[in-house]
Fold:
Amino acid sequence: MTPRPIRRLKPPLDERSVRRLKVGDFVSITGRIFTARDKVYDMALQLFRGGKRMPLNMRGGVVYHCGPLARKIRGAWQVLSAGPTTSARLDRMQVEFVESTGVRALVGKGGVGEDVARELRRLGCVYLAFTGGAGVLAASAVERVEKVLWQKLGAAEALWVLYVRNFGPLVVAIDLHGGNLYLREGGGAKF
Amino acid sequence: MLSEIEFRKTIVEMFKRATTTLPSDVVDAIKRSERLERNEIATAQFSCMLRNLKLAHKLSRPICQDTGIPIFFIELGSDLNLNFDLRQALSRALDEATLAVPLRRNLVDPLTRVESLEGQPIVHINLTKGDGLRIDLLIKGAGGENWSRLYMLKPTEGADAVKRVVLFTLAEAGGQPCPPTVVGIGIGGSADAACTLAKRALLRPLDVGNDDPELAELEAQIAEAANDLGIGPMGLGGSTTVLGVHILRAACHTASLPVAIDLQCWVARRATAKLTGGRLEVETP
Structure:
């Protein structure tokens, strides 16, 4: 069995480049990504609902559901471990967040609910899975920390702007064509 | 006599060991699972897990950025004399480990969500005969912990109902608790006791069987059915959904059948220390 080739993605992404992706494809990312989890989503929605904008442009961007473990050494951040967090925890805010920011890819673990997956398709946003718990492997792809916004939310909840190189292998788990690796036919039929 | 300084040093060492290196029984189970998988996406997940374990060990960094919530199980000999405050020593050791390992500052007030250490760390103490001391540390990430479930079943429903609620929980959880998981199940006791049993069941190494034959049989049946769900590593599909199923039981009220479920992610972190010859030493599991 020859391993499938890894497709390289370089954000910002346009619709065409994410439409090409199919579930089961392996991809890697080189470029700028943004971390976001519960509190960043919450803050962002408060801004949007108040008619305000995010402090940075995320259009075409890649959002990584992650709360990194990092330490500051001589004034510079070093990311030690940075695996994905559970994406579905953000589901009640997911669609509004993606629509308002215009991001083209979510990276996380465990997938999103079926209804959210349908909306992501409509918005032209793919879902890429990285192995949960593989924190040091993910951190080794972080070339530099460009910025940390909203640090008052706590280091794990803040919005980290990371420059990653060959971050992967990520698996396309929800594509724009109705593919969803998290749906299992006949799953649980035995009980 | 065991000094507080020495005690704290050992606890910090337990945190370091547990968060950066998995017990050998867990690593073996992951390797065995990798060989069983036929699809490329599943094998890629296992390969990332194993590469990550090597890197974490080599760089001495936490395997997962979610360094979890720590839970201590202490077997304290009734005749043991300690000349320090055990609870305070544990909280101090948690502070020290947070800086030394380092651990992510995960603990917050449940309502204000502001960093807080109120009531932490969680400690379960069992009094034992003699003057021994055994400390088990379990590290639980939120991915698995958030899928903890308690069912108060009808007393006559029996083992079939236990199987049903465990499989239902696993099916609903899908990839979210970072499968393949270790499934802890507590049957009986009271609502709170069942939850503690389920958590304590996670302390048993994966290569040690249940010495209760009835429970061993139930564990095997649940494990087989769970792996048939097809959830697979990280929920992306495959034949390994659980690394093991561990059950503990206790007597319960004749009108109750409490069943608690506690899922531990594949980064099944734990450490043990025992007092031997006046010294508290971390054992390499």
In short: The CA atoms of residues 70 and 80 of chain A lie 5 Å apart. Residues 186-191 of chain A have pLDDT under 50 and may be disordered. The longest strand of chain A covers residues 159-174. Chain A touches chain B through 46 residues (CB under 8 Å).
